[in-house]
Structures are given as C-alpha cells and as structure tokens.
Structure prediction request, 268 residues.
Amino acid sequence: MGQTNRNSKIGCATRVESKKAKYPRTLLLKVHYETSVPYGQDRVIPIWVATLTVLQKNRAVRFGSAAQILEFFRLPKDGPHYRRMVQGFQRVFAATVFFGTEQQPDRTAVIDLARFQFFDRMQLWFNSTEEHQTPPGENFENEIVLSEAFYREINEHRIPVEREVVAALAHAPGVLDFYMWLVWKSWTVNGRPAVVPLVAEHGLSEQLGSAEYCEARFFRRKVRIWLQQVNALWPECPASISATGSTIIVQSSRQSPAIRAVAKAVNT
Prediction:
C-alpha cells in the first residue's frame, strides 16, 4: 500500500520477493473504478482487523463503532480523522493485490497468476456526525469477514507487534512499514542473523516497495533515519546497519519482543 498514487485507479506495480517463484514477479494493486488505492494511514486498518481476529478467534470480526479504531491507535476522534478512516475502510475493501510473472524465458510462455484480498464482506454503519454513534438497530454490530487467505496468514504467521508503536507511527507510513518488516524479520530469524542488502534484487528496497528512491544512496540514508526512529520506540530492536552501509543485519527478537509501552508519536 505504500508506493501507490492516491488518485490512481489501478495502483502501481513493484517487485516483491517470492521464494517459490522461478522468475521475477510483479505485484499490482488494483481497486474498483470508483475507489482510489489504499495509502498512508490506511495501513492501520488491516493491522486493527488482524488484532480483532486474534482476540475474537474468528474469521468474522464484530465491533461496535468504527470510531473504536481511532481510540485504539490514539488518533484524534474528530471529523477529519473519522471521515478519513471511513474512506480508508472502503479503499482497503475494494483493493485486490495481483501477483504474476514479470518475465518469460526465451521462447517459452509462462502464466503464473495469483490474487489476494483482505476482506470478503464488510457491513459497517457510519454516522455523519461522529460525536453521536448510534447504530441503526438495537442489536446491530459492525462486521468484517476476512478473506480465507488473510485469515490463514494471520493464524499461521503471528508476530508480536506493539500497538503503541503502531499508534506512534500512524502518521509516518514509511517508518511503520519498516517497523512491521523488522518485527516480522527478527521474529522469524532462527539461528544465524539475517543479512539483507538494502538495494539489490530481493533487497529491502524491493521488499518495502520503495520505488520512489531512484538512487541507492537516498534509500540507504532513509533507512538509517528510519532505524533511529524505530530504536527510539523499540530500544531492544535487534537490527543494525553494516559497516559498509550496504546491508541491514537482523538478529532474533525472541529474547526481546517488540512489545513495549510507547507514548511518543512520530511524524514524517
């Protein structure tokens, strides 16, 4: 969701790492023609829904008010933020991620396609005046049914993400993507530390989809800044930049999970 044009109708393409793919692959985010692609703060919506799924132990999650997500992530409960979140739910629901082959070997046709959606069904009520959250019926509840793929991914690959860190980074989508990547990578490291090139095929820049950094030195500089911001919120973060500045070294976080109370917000 990070490197998309908010006014685009079909999103953008970026390379993604796939251990099962024999040839390079392309990720393409598409949306319904009347809906723009997810962007910026929309990231917190799948995170919140995944949290509800874990708590409720159900593929269909229910909650009282859409304004709860603002409170959950310590966002201002005012008109602009409320309307922004309402529109974000619609963008995330409408988005479909397509995976497919980007290249073909000589004289051989290869068709390898897959697609992914976050939600299968969404029934939400939104009041035009967010201060008065009165549901349309006494027993009415908001309900989101996760796609089977998203639900399975949550159950099979849980990671210890700190809610307060996500809240602090809600207005800094680039840092939030980097933090989520670090949490996942460090939690899945088993044994030897992972050494990931910053700019290379299947490197960090491709995994984060940071296509906007056309020169490697700009991305390396940005990663250093992001790591400083993450360290301020997660001092035990087991990641460091190599002496050459070309790779990031990630050790296991099993002894220092990313669960920590944070009160400072970050804006970029």
Summary: Residues 216-233 form the longest helix (18 residues). The first strand starts at residue 13 and ends at 15.
